[in-house]
Amino acid sequence: MMFGENFKRKYALSDKGVENTKKGMLWTVIVNLVVMTGTGILYMLTSKFMDTLVNGAGLPNAWFFILLTAAFVVLSLITHVGQYVSTYGLVYGEVKDMRIGLAERLRKLPLGYFGKRDLADLTETIMGDVNRMEHVWSHVMGYLYGSYVSTAIIAVCLFIYDWRLAIACLWGVPVAFGLLFGSRKLAKRNSEISKAAAVTVSDGIQETLENIREIHAINQEEKYLNGLYKKIDDHEATLIQGELATGIFVNAASVIMRLGVATTILVGAKLILSGNIDFMLFFMFLLVITRIYAPFDQSLALIAEVFMSEVSAERLMEIYDTPAAEGSETFAPKGHDITFENVGFAYDDEQVLKGVSFTAKEGEVTALVGPSGSGKSTCARLAARLWDATDGKISVGGVDIASVDPETLLSDYSMVFQDVVLFDDTVMENIRLGRHGATDEEVRKAASAANCDEFVEKLPQGYDTPIGENGAKLSGGERQRISIARALLKNAPIVLLDEATASLDVENETKVQGALSRLLANKTVLVIAHRMRTVEAADKIVVLADGKVAEEGIPAELMNKDGGMFKRMVELQTQGAGWRI
Ligand code: ADP
């Protein structure tokens, strides 16, 4: 079926979009046929005059032709309006729905997806690709498919009048389309190249803006800008290259099609001379020929655009094809023990976790230790379903977290990670993010417990001081305390903690520690441990190595295990300068 699933996918259309395309197509057929009727009127008028001239018949009835022409003009106007409304008008709703649908979809995708396609790439899809599809939906689909149908109808009529002249007139059409379809691969390839170049440009602009301070600081403006200019030039070059290639094919196709005029005249002259047809039939073909190529000319350019748009449609559909992280919106676990059972995981091809099993008990601090890259952060991310495990099962209080909607699940988690995200708002509002609707009083209490008072009091407007984009005005330790205050405010039963505090001085570290111990009391705590103190204080240690659990147990036990990995690591690191596992 022409308008089946494949068609929808190919052009990234919704059901409504398909309906609109059909309407646009129907109106285009009507418009093209009405325009052809104009040629019919001209033919009738001319043949009447010829009758008068050659056979001495009376003059044609002027009123009849004036009325006919007026009717034609009115009909033409109405049908053009119908075509306009059914193509351009209907499409705008579709574009809006598409963008909202994409945004909704992106919200539901697992976080891992955003590592594969970065922000610039996704923005390019939501804005650029949807724009391109909009153009194809509004300017192309209806016209193109409508022209196929109307020309087929006209071609059948021409064949009925005289098949020899019809062939002479139309042979170029399949040749021209054949040529264009032959260039399809090339057009798509060019489109892919220029799309990639466009994403590189947005990436470059985003990167430069984000890092403008650092770029200034290291005096590299010129180098950076030159790099950016080069990316923009490259993009332009790929666009020109693409347009040129398409332009050559489209124009060649158009010229080939027009050779039909020459062959019609040649064949027509021969047929008249041999007495096979009369002059008026030949004249009618000449009139038709002036009109018949017009919708095709438009179609040729449009087809090239359709080929190029296939790349955009594929990029759009890729978002829809990615399985969303979905699940039940109720989450009623029995307690909050986190259990990993034979969990396997790979970001790409490389297996990061290979059958990890352990339990982090409620009311205990479980410390994940292991060499850098051993998968500690990955375990923490999986525990919160920021990614889905590829093998095995992770459960909280006996409930498989893969069956719970990520947003619902996360309401039971507080996360204090290394990269604290702060917004360009006041200190108060940044902490309030922990629990929507918390009162000022509650926010202040959490902030005090997180040892924020001391630095906030020094800010010009206290808790109402704006902290600049991503907390630019705050130090590392201060940012971390804000993030702990958020977690305290949320008071979720599970706390995931990455306590990389390398950037903190000793005084700050003690303050952060104090804040932390308040946060962690009676929770299920999974901590990516870096420091001796945390590891010693933990209730349980899980040592990760090579994507597996190498050892687990209470710290004192592991410290006494001769030849144990944990013991060796602790000994090595305490001898070294900084204590890092
Ligand atoms: P750790 O926290 O123990 O240092 P991670 O869990 O961060 O280890 O990383 C484990 C492995 O997974 C590393 O080899 C790292 O390169 C890889 N990795 C981490 N995050 C990603 C990601 N977003 N995409 C691809 N690979 C990743």
Summarize the structure.
By secondary structure, the chain is an alpha/beta fold. It has helices spanning 5-10, 15-55, 62-108, 113-116, 119-161, 163-170, 172-182, 184-210, 212-217, 221-273, 279-321, 376-383, 406-410, 427-432, 440-449, 453-456, 476-490, 506-520, 532-537, 555-559, 565-575, and strands at residues 338-346, 351-360, 365-369, 391-396, 399-400, 413-416, 494-498, 524-528, 540-545, 548-553.
Write a structural description:
- By secondary structure, the chain is an alpha/beta fold.
- The protein has three domains: 5-321, ABC transporter type 1, transmembrane domain (ABC transporter transmembrane region fold, Up-down Bundle), CATH 1.20.1560.10; 343-412 and 495-505 and 522-581, P-loop containing nucleotide triphosphate hydrolases (Rossmann fold); 422-491, 3-Layer(aba) Sandwich (Rossmann fold).
- Helix content is 64%, strand content 10%.
- It has helices spanning 5-10, 15-55, 62-108, 113-116, 119-161, 163-170, 172-182, 184-210, 212-217, 221-273, 279-321, 376-383, 406-410, 427-432, 440-449, 453-456, 476-490, 506-520, 532-537, 555-559, 565-575; strands at residues 338-346, 351-360, 365-369, 391-396, 399-400, 413-416, 494-498, 524-528, 540-545, 548-553.
- Strands 6-7-8-3-9-10 form a six-stranded mixed sheet, with helices on both faces.
- Strand 4 and strand 5 form a beta hairpin.
- Helix 3 (62-108) packs antiparallel against helix 5 (119-161), helix 5 packs antiparallel against helix 11 (279-321) and helix 6 (163-170) runs antiparallel to helix 10.
- The longest helix is centred in the middle third of the chain and has 53 residues, at 221-273.
- It is elongated.
- The two termini are 62 Å apart.
- The mean pLDDT is 85.
- The structure holds adenosine-5'-diphosphate.
- Residues 115, 347-348, 352, 370, 372-378 line the site of adenosine-5'-diphosphate (ADP).
